[in-house]
Amino acid sequence: MRSLRFVVAAAGMAVATAFASPTDPKVGSEYVVLAQPVPVQAVGKKVEVIEFFMYHCPACNALEPTITGWAKRQGDNIQFRRVHMPATGPNDPEAHLHLTLEAMGLSEQMSARVFHAMHVQRVRLNREEVIFEWIAKQGIDTKKFKDYWNSFGVKTKLRRVPQVLNAYKVESVPTVIIDGRYVTSPAIVSQSGAVSPTAFTQVLDALVAKAKATKK
């Protein structure tokens, strides 16, 4: 499945072979480096961290509590945001849901609920009418949600997601980009296919510290 693999030798990435530990990650072992860094949106000395994900992805669901807790612990060190890969094309309903919640300032608050609905309650939030019905049950103003859903800003961002994926050379999820340069994922950190949450967050900690050390 696309959501459960990561092509380490993706075009546009500089890859080297090395052995390292999670607390001392090495390029080619625990992370790779984008050949062309992407400008960041982080303010001041904050380090930008982007998680590329999909709501229906089992690996993303498994990572959700770990990366959410990690981002909270990092606090003001980072500027954390998520980008939903549009699995079904430029009008992907799940990506549309995420961008709508983000525009309403509810994406982080609702993230765990969406994952729970899809992976535990088996609610298939992949159709507009199902999404609207589910939103109404979450205590969210449905009219306000629909207004954001149909807004120019949200639809413009939805159309631009494929360009964002291309800029970061993201081919699968979950993938995390630090400071527009460093690319890692549970699959990269553990080529055997299994990685502990602690090991992955240690890699993230080290890459944030690495990026922060270069900021003036």
Keywords:
45% helix; alpha+beta; 216 residues; 6 strands; six-stranded mixed sheet
If you had to describe this structure to a student in words, what would you say it looks like?
The chain is α+β, with helices and mostly antiparallel strands. Helix content is 45%, strand content 12%. Helix 1 links the parallel strand 3 and strand 4.
Helix-strand string = EEEHEHHHHHEEHH
CA radius of gyration is: 17 Å
Helix share, percent: 40-55%
Tally of DSSP helical segments = 8
Mean pLDDT across all amino acids: 89
Largest sheet: 6 strands, mixed
β content, as a range?
5-15%
The dominant shape is: globular
Q: How widely separated are the two ends?
A: 41 Å
Structural class: alpha+beta
Strand order of the largest sheet: 1-2-6-5-3-4
Low-pLDDT sequence parts:
1-19
**Strands, count:** 6
Summarize the structure.
Helices cover 45% and strands 12% of the residues. It has 216 residues and is α+β, with helices and mostly antiparallel strands.
Question: How are the SSEs placed, and which strands pair?
Answer:
Blueprint: E1 13-14, E2 32-34, E3 47-53, H1 58-74, E4 78-84, H2 93-103, H3 107-119, H4 128-137, H5 142-149, H6 152-168, E5 175-178, E6 182-184, H7 186-189, H8 197-213
Helix pairs in contact: 1-3, 2-3, 2-6
